[in-house]
Q: What sequence folds into this?
């Protein structure tokens, strides 16, 4: 049996985060009652005409810039003709021969730390179709419903080169694109709601063979986990098929997450002849340099650039910088905390530690965190200025998370303010020394290099008595001088 | 009243000679009297027309001076009119009540016109005889054994028989100009982009333009002023200022250069038509214009290129009639394929089906380059050719149609012959240039003969001015005696 090599290319449909549709003024809001966001244009009424939403073009320009791709100064909308009930006009307005975004590439970091470049063949603007509702409708009697709210929602379809060699690589690439489109604010990235959809073209070939194997296109994949599973299932299916003497047929296959399998949807023979031709209702898109320059000037920092800046500016490790820049919102959060509390390391530890754990436990996204960046920064400032200890800060954080107020409020109401008053601290130190004569004696007998460890016991006793409020550094210093003085 | 031109009617309304309600009632009476025979209207909106007329009378009483206020006109049934059936001449849309107004309709409504109703047409504007209409052929008031041409045949007959002061048609390959010529009217196809296509049911989007049919160039000037203009809802409409067409009507013709393309006077052109057109050119000469022989080298493949482009676009434009959201749906569909097949088979007539199939063919894999792409190249050559000639001359004059009489049924089993009849008109659509058709004589058989003038982009004003002055010098305009009373 030969060694098999897998070849994967992805087509990613990203729903652009415009307020209105790509060719009409209807809202693109998700989750509205069926057909309440469908205008005359979305319904494909006789006599209606599309008008291009400039915001969608702007977002395509941003994407081109983000992946360093060629930007077509002249691109053309074409009609892709086919019949389906959720396609009101009987054609989808897309781009075919002249897409707005040309060749580009992204760098991904593989599991072994190696960097791989994945080519992006093109990205084009198009309109989404509506939805056919076969179940969960009140129509009954085997009827299907059509919801045209989604019809006309702008999509940017990003087509990769067949550069990926494993399901893991494909997922890494898809995550990278996801990171980029959410960073530059052109897509909300919500896979459950279908804002970010991946189709995978998968084929296998004997290792060393140049010619590509016959591919299957996998559809209906709505998470990164399913992307990996679907591809892996398909690779195995194709290898088994060939090794059993069969041949892969070019077809579209649907991934069924419940059964974890792919099954045939339509073969190449059943495929439509889409009869693409330039849409005569729309003018070619011609980009002016001034407009493009304005868009580029307003671009946010890209994830790769931000990651290296975090390392240099904040002295973070590559690993920490990578995690903190995973999403723009996380990076923004960290950066605000770091800048406001003035301690990047402390901020990094808290964002990746307490905050991440709390989010995880509550199954929340960072954008929905009950403690926002400013609130966390104020809490960390109270550690920095010795108002509370790091340990008590965790308690304060929990209270803040539970909605009990801001850091100062919680510290005040719970009386957690750190005690730094020398008189009070000396009182506790005296009590502890009186109560533990044996330990005092042992300390004094001990070798000087062992004493550093032993002092922890005394500080701990004071922390206990003070309910954690005593300033540990001060207590430590007091013990040091008191235990040393009479030895 | 109906013997008057629109301009004369406007003057009468303003001096109170009659009210808009009287005028409207008069036309409605004439429609009731004659249209059962002529079949030029699909829908008559009598009640609404009288209400609109009453409103117009109030505007007139308040001293409103717009020339269109209170003027009754008709729309080809291709224009969406809110709350009124908009059938496009098809069984497919027999049950379709448009939920909105076309921009051309709302512009004219704002200008104060009164809508008498919706006129008959070839199904989805596909035809040159008005015989492909689901509602039956329209008759030509000059000879009721003949059709008025198409596809805006109902609009032409309605104005020619004086059932309406003017009518709005659409012109994709000659559908305003050809019926105007065959019924003795003046008709204009404006520059592509001059009038909004919003709400105008699409046949071939890159060629379709709305245009008026009326008795005189002056009337056209009045109506065009009310309907033209940029519309943000139509990406192909152009933000170019609308001229004051009325004030330019008397512009001097001295020094005007008129081109006469030799290709327009070759084989296939009826001798009577050729003679009448050439005769009209002599009138211009006598008025101080210079006549120049020119050549349009790409005229010969124009009809083929036109039909490839038009039908390709049509095949896609008509996909939305699928029985799902509006229009005809077959009874008890068994499944999705059955729903599509039967709804479309039952809803569309033979000519529409022929054109959809031809259009699909030219766009299909393996044929696209040979047909659609080549046709687009020819289209570019034709436009360049016109641009070149229009640098030498101001206008191009020629015939509108190779024939002046279209007996009912003559073209029905010979679509190729019908298509070839569009030879003189399709180039203005392929190039986007404005063109006007106006009467220049009569045939032995008593049928009107038209001539066509093609001008440079946005020069509708010049076309109207030249045609108007020709009409001051000549007297071809008449009323068909059968429908005069």
A:
């Amino acid at each position: 049996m030969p060694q098999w090599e897998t070849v994967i290319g992805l087509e990613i449909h990203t729903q652009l985060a415009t307020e209105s549709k790509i060719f009409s003024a209807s809202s693109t809001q998700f989750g509205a009652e069926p057909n309440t966001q469908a205008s005359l244009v979305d319904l494909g009424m006789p006599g209606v005409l599309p008008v291009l939403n400039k915001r969608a073009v702007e977002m395509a320009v941003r994407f081109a810039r983000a992946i360093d791709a060629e930007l077509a100064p002249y691109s053309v909308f074409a009609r892709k003709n086919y019949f389906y009930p959720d396609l009101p006009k009987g054609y989808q307005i897309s781009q075919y021969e002249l897409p707005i975004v040309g060749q580009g590439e992204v760098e991904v970091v593989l599991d072994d730390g190696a960097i791989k470049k994945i080519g992006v063949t093109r990205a084009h603007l198009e309109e989404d179709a509506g939805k056919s509702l076969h179940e969960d409708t009140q129509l009954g009697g085997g009827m299907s419903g059509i919801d045209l709210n989604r019809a006309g929602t702008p999509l940017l379809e990003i087509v990769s080169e067949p550069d990926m060699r494993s399901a893991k690589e494909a997922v890494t690439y898809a995550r990278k694109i996801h990171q980029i489109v959410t960073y530059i604010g052109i897509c909300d990235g919500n896979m459950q709601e279908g804002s970010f959809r991946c189709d995978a073209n998968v084929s296998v070939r004997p290792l060393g063979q140049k010619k590509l194997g016959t591919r299957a296109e996998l559809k209906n994949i709505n998470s990164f986990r399913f992307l990996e599973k679907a591809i892996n299932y398909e690779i195995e299916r194709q290898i088994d098929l060939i090794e059993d003497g069969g041949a892969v047929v070019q077809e579209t296959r649907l991934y069924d997450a419940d059964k974890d399998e792919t099954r045939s949807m339509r073969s190449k023979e059943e495929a439509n002849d889409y009869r693409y031709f330039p849409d005569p209702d729309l003018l070619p898109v011609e980009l002016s340099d001034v407009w493009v320059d304005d868009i580029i000037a307003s671009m946010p920092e890209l994830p790769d650039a931000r990651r290296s800046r975090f390392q240099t500016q904040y002295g973070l490790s590559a690993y920490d910088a990578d995690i903190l820049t995973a999403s723009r919102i996380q990076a923004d959060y960290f950066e605000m905390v770091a800048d406001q509390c003035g301690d990047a390391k402390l901020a990094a530890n808290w964002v990746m530690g307490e905050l991440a754990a709390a989010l995880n436990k509550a199954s929340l996204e960072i954008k929905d965190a009950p403690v926002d960046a400013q609130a966390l920064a104020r809490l960390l400032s109270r550690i920095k200025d010795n108002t509370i200890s790091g340990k008590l800060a965790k308690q304060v954080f929990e209270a803040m998370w539970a909605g009990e107020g801001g850091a100062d409020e919680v510290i005040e109401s719970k009386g957690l303010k750190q005690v730094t008053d020398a008189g009070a601290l000396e009182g506790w130190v005296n009590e502890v020394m009186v109560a533990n004569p044996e330990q005092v004696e042992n300390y004094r007998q001990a070798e000087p290099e062992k004493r550093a460890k032993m002092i922890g016991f005394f500080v701990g006793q004071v922390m206990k008595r003070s309910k954690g409020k005593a300033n540990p550094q001060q207590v430590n210093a007091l013990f040091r001088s008191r235990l040393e003085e009479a030895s | 009243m109906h013997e008057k031109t629109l301009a004369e009617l406007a003057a009468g309304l303003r001096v109170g000679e009659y009210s808009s309600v009287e005028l409207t009632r008069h036309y409605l009476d004439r429609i009731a009297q004659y249209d059962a025979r002529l079949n030029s209207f699909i829908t008559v909106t009598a009640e609404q027309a009288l209400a609109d007329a009453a409103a117009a009378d109030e505007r007139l009483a308040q001293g409103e001076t717009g020339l269109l206020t209170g003027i009754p006109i008709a729309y080809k049934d291709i224009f969406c009119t809110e709350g009124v059936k908009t059938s496009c001449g098809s069984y497919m849309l027999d049950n379709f009540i448009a939920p909105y107004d076309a921009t051309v309709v709302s512009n004219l409504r704002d200008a104060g016109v009164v809508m008498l109703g919706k006129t008959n047409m070839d199904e989805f504007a596909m035809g040159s005889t008005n015989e492909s209409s689901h509602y039956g052929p329209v008759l030509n008031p000059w000879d009721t054994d003949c059709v008025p041409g198409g596809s805006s045949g109902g609009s032409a007959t309605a104005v020619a028989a004086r059932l309406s002061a003017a009518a709005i048609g659409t012109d994709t390959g000659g559908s305003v100009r050809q019926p105007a010529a065959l019924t003795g009217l003046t008709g204009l196809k404006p520059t592509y982009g001059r009038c909004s296509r919003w709400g105008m049911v699409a046949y071939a989007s890159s060629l379709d333009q709305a245009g008026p049919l009326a008795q005189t160039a002056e009337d056209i000037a009045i109506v065009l002023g009310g309907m033209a203009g940029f519309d943000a809802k139509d990406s192909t409409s152009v933000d170019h200022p609308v001229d004051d067409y009325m004030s330019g009507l008397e512009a001097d013709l001295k020094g005007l250069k008129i081109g006469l393309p030799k290709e327009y006077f070759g084989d296939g052109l009826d001798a009577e038509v050729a003679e009448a057109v050439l005769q009209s050119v002599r009138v211009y000469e006598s008025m101080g214009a210079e006549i120049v022989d020119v050549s349009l080298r790409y005229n010969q493949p124009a009809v083929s290129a036109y039909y490839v482009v038009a039908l390709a676009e049509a095949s896609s434009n008509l996909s939305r009639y699928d029985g799902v959201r509006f229009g005809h749906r077959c009874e008890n569909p068994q499944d999705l394929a059955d729903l599509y097949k039967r709804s479309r088979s039952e809803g569309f007539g033979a000519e529409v089906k022929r054109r959809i199939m031809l259009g699909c063919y030219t766009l299909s894999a393996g044929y696209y380059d040979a047909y659609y792409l080549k046709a687009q190249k020819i289209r570019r050559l034709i436009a360049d050719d016109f641009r070149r000639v229009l640098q030498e001359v101001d206008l191009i004059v020629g015939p509108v149609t190779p024939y002046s009489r279209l007996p009912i049924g003559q073209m029905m089993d010979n679509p190729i012959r019908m298509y070839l009849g569009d030879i003189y008109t399709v180039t203005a659509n392929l190039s986007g240039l404005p063109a006007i058709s106006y009467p220049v004589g009569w045939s032995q058989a008593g049928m009107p003969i038209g001539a066509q003038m093609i001008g440079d982009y946005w020069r509708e004003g010049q076309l109207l001015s030249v045609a108007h002055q020709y009409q001051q010098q000549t007297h071809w305009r008449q009323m068909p005696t059968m429908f005069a009373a």
The longest strand of chain B covers residues 435-442. Residues 105 and 451 of chain B are 28 Å apart (CA to CA). Chain B has a mean pLDDT of 96.
